[in-house]
Amino acid sequence: MEIKSLGYRTDLLLLELSGSEFQDTGEYVVIRTPANPAYWWGNFLLYRSIFAAGDVKARLETYRAEFPAAKHVAFGIDSVDGEIGVEDELAAAGFTVDRNVVMTASEVVAPRRPDDESTYRFLTSDDDWEQLTQLGLATATMKVDDGYVEFTRRRDAAQRALVEAGHGKWFGAFDDGRLQSSLGLMFDGNGLARFQHVQTHPDDRNRGIASTLVHHASTYGLTDGGARTLVMVADPEYLAIRLYRALGFEDTETQLQFTLPPAA
């Protein structure tokens, strides 16, 4: 299955390792994650062309046919240039359009303001992983209801399984045993390493912890991890993107995501 986008190519690699299923129809790829049906970006359609006039309605019908039980709708476009097509039709249908920046680095520089108070190490224990789930809930941008808690626990269980199977590492910054910041770094075995879920507790932000953690993980990835290229996908409107650029990551392509949340 040929995927042009480096962002989606590494996304699908990690999903496949976690047990997701793919069906390539030619026009689009169906991505299903039976173990976590509430995971939007584990259950979506990845199209190979932009939205032409009338495609929004047609693709919505296709999505409902492929995912009849889904409450959400999620589309991607396998492209690198950020071109969408009929964005006005997407907006009229209620879609949110996200243009994320795919960033890469083959070497990194130390942060300008490194943190030397926290302890930086891998997540290993049951308590570490439970703290990861609680950190994910504390940093959530969506409403944290029972469904979101269940989604988070399933996602973290899948991530832990990948780590324990030897596909990557999960890193944390700790203050006397309390998880402050975390991220995952997963390897494709062919020189690519993809960052996952960089997050910092609101009480621990603006102290240089996240940049120190990213640098720590990057250094590991490019040495002990055997990676030649690090891949990071970032929100261009979020302040953290400046942190990644300062560490040596460069903008490479644009990843397009389209979501329609469950009806109220």
From TrEMBL:
Residues 118-264 form the N-acetyltransferase domain. InterPro entries: Acyl_CoA_acyltransferase, GNAT_dom. The keyword Nucleotide-binding does not apply. Gene3D superfamilies: 3.40.630.30. It holds the Pfam family Acetyltransf_1. Keywords: Transferase. The keyword Transferase applies. GO terms for molecular function: acyltransferase activity, transferring groups other than amino-acyl groups. CDD domains: NAT_SF. This is GNAT family N-acetyltransferase. It comes from Kribbella pittospori.
